[in-house]
Design goal:
By secondary structure, this protein is an alpha+beta fold. The chain is built from eight helices and 13 strands. 27% of the residues lie in helices and 28% in strands. The structure holds zinc ion.
Length: 221
């Protein structure tokens, strides 16, 4: 049985998958990527009787990060992530928000920038951090081995991958990160992507046209 429970709360006009993870016994929780619609996130925390202890951010895009400052202030908790190369995004969220009608967007500097090889911690449970640039330069993902769960933001989707046409994007870097860091997590890992339905690494290895095994073989010929 998974040690961490997880729920997805779809937020912002971009239909972003904010997720809440928590320990079932202590009900101590973290929120990943609170892009906005904080009243929905806060209601979920309240309804489930959870105690929010951390906010984790995969990358600095508006739909993932614009509500982090306000949520952190409301609950007096720290923000961890993304990696520092996304500072050009986390420091301009207010400006980005104005362009998309998200007036509550706030800039932030996280309490802790994350790097490859770091671990984040939720009530004693350790999640491994991998730096997966390509969608944004400072994108990180989180993996909890014991729960066979990964939170991958806009790196990998069911049947697709993150777009790379935005500032700092690189398709080569993204595919390399997926190949070298995400797929090796294992076929039985369930992942929560930044948008759309959950999937497993195994399913993507077989069916995702961007990263499926067969494609690797063809492209290496
Ligand atoms: Zn994004």
């Amino acid at each position: 049985m998974a040690i961490l429970k997880a729920a997805i709360i779809t937020v912002t006009p971009f239909q972003q998958n904010c997720s809440v993870i928590w320990k079932e016994d202590t009900k101590i929780a973290a929120v990943n990527d609170p892009g906005g619609d904080l009243e929905i996130i806060e209601k979920f925390i309240d309804d489930q009787g959870l105690t929010l202890s951390k906010i984790f951010i995969t990358h600095g895009h508006l739909d993932h990060a614009a509500g982090a400052r306000e949520l952190a202030d409301n609950f007096k908790v720290d923000i961890e992530g993304p990696q520092i190369e996304d500072e050009f995004l986390t420091s301009t969220l207010e400006m980005q928000g104005k362009s998309y009608g998200m007036d509550s967007a706030q800039n932030f500097t996280p309490d802790r920038w994350l790097n490859e090889g770091d671990q984040i911690e939720l009530d004693g449970e350790k999640l491994d951090v991998y730096h997966c640039p390509g969608h944004t330069p400072g994108h990180v993902i989180f993996h909890h081995k014991e729960s066979k769960l990964a939170i991958v933001g806009d790196v990998l989707f069911q049947g697709s991958v993150g777009r790379t046409d935005l500032p700092g994007g690189s398709m080569d870097a993204l595919i390399a990160a997926i190949r070298e860091k995400v797929l090796p997590l294992g076929d039985d890992i369930t992942f929560i992507p930044g948008h759309g339905p959950i999937s497993t690494i195994g399913q993507e290895r077989l069916t995702n046209p961007y990263v499926a095994d067969q494609l690797f073989k063809e492209s290496s010929n």
